[in-house]
Amino acid sequence: MVTQAYAQEAVTPAEEHVTVDGTTGAVDATHADPTADTHATTEAHDGGHSDVFPPFDPATFPSQLLWLAISFAALYLLMSKLALPRVGSILEERKARIDADIAAADASRQKTDAAIAAYEAALAAAKAKAQGIAAETGDAIKTELATKRKAVEADLASKVTSAEARIAATKAAAMSHVDEIAAETAQTVVTQLVGDVSADSVRAAVAKASKE
Amino acid sequence: MAGTDPIHQFVIEDMIPIHLGGDGTAGSGLNFSFTNSSLFMVLTVAAITTFVLLASSKRSLVPSRLQLSGELLYEFVANMLRSSAGKEGMKFFPFVFSLFTFVLFANLFGLVPYFFTVTSHIIVTVALAVLVMTVVIGYGFFRHGPKFLKLFVPAGVPGYVLPIVVPIEIISFLSRPVSLSVRLFGNILAGHITLKVFAGFVVSLGALGWLGWLGAILPLIMTVAITALEFLVAAVQAYVFAVLTSMYLNDAVHPSH
């Protein structure tokens, strides 16, 4: 490379001179321009190649700095004005959507909880009511039964007492008839045995006997 | 021509010559030519822009793989900056994102055979590091005025230690752009030279017949392994560059430690 460059360098001035000398001005101008260019670039390369390690070659610094500035400024502008806001808005939209969905889900859950609580309260109230009704009915039935039983018992008791009274009366009546029967029996017996006897004397004898 | 020359890959060649100033003689004036380095800077920017714009073109709620990778890149840099510089540091997000992606894509492009590695030239890494420090110092003074100098006076340090601590802080601050640029440049340069040297062994030994083919196996394995390592280095160096930038920006946002 180095030798090639040197060779070219050595050749080109000679060529230039030849063309300047040998041809017309117009042809000379068109011919001279490209060779002058290659001449300059090969020389610049020559310096870079031969003595300096390319990354430390100051001759390349202006070009690198200029193009770095241009490209990095372009990158910064493209990123800050166009690309990053786009990505950022996508991420924000998604976050907003997710947050809204979570909030909606939370609201639904709270509604469900409220519904469950209301249902449970209603159920508890109904249960309490049912229990109240059951207790009330039970009590009513009990009191009714108790009154009926009392009435029946009272009825029975009065019947028993009246019956007892009648028995006592009958018994008393019966007991009062015992003397008469005894007197009649005794009169009959005495009549059979002795003949006629006055009823009064028999009755007195019976009374005397029953007293003994 | 320079098939196994490990330095040839760093040579900058003019593609569209642009010369300003000077008297027309070679070497005079400034060379602003569009070079192979410029081409890969432009390609890097084009690739990043294409990637991010394509990834965000569909705007779907459930992302495709491409969109997800773009979003991951975005969130990765955003989280890195937020954890280092806090919420106030997020105004530098486009800057840090541009730096990270530029260095990452330039490093990765450099690993493609025959591609030029933009970050293997110290002037590029120095320029990026100086840009970072300019932003840090500029924003620090703009935001905090002279209070920004508190950066060099750590809080809670007793007065008699300050004559020692303050120069140390200043030196460490001044060494930041140096370490930032040389770290990236050195890693990329050394990796590419090593890769080229081992690959060159394979070519040289392969020319020696069957025994050379046998001997070329070891450098070939090394080349494959170093290529893998270089992919790691390319990503890690971009990450390190961006993380350190975030931390330096944190100093600009919150100077009193």
UniProtKB/TrEMBL annotation, chain A:
Q: Which HAMAP family match?
A: ATP_synth_b_bprime (MF_01398)
According to its UniProt record, where is this protein located? Cell inner membrane; Cell membrane
Which residues fall in a compositionally biased region of kind Basic and acidic residues?
A: 30-49
Any one of the GO CC terms? plasma membrane
Segments for region (Disordered): 1-51
Q: Which gene encodes it?
A: atpF
What's the protein name?
ATP synthase subunit b
The record's listing under InterPro entries reads: ATP_synth_b/b'su_bac/chlpt, ATP_synthase_B_chain
Q: What is the lineage of its organism?
A: Bacteria, Pseudomonadati, Pseudomonadota, Alphaproteobacteria, Hyphomicrobiales
Organism, scientific name:
Devosia epidermidihirudinis
A Gene Ontology molecular function term for this protein is: proton-transporting ATP synthase activity, rotational mechanism
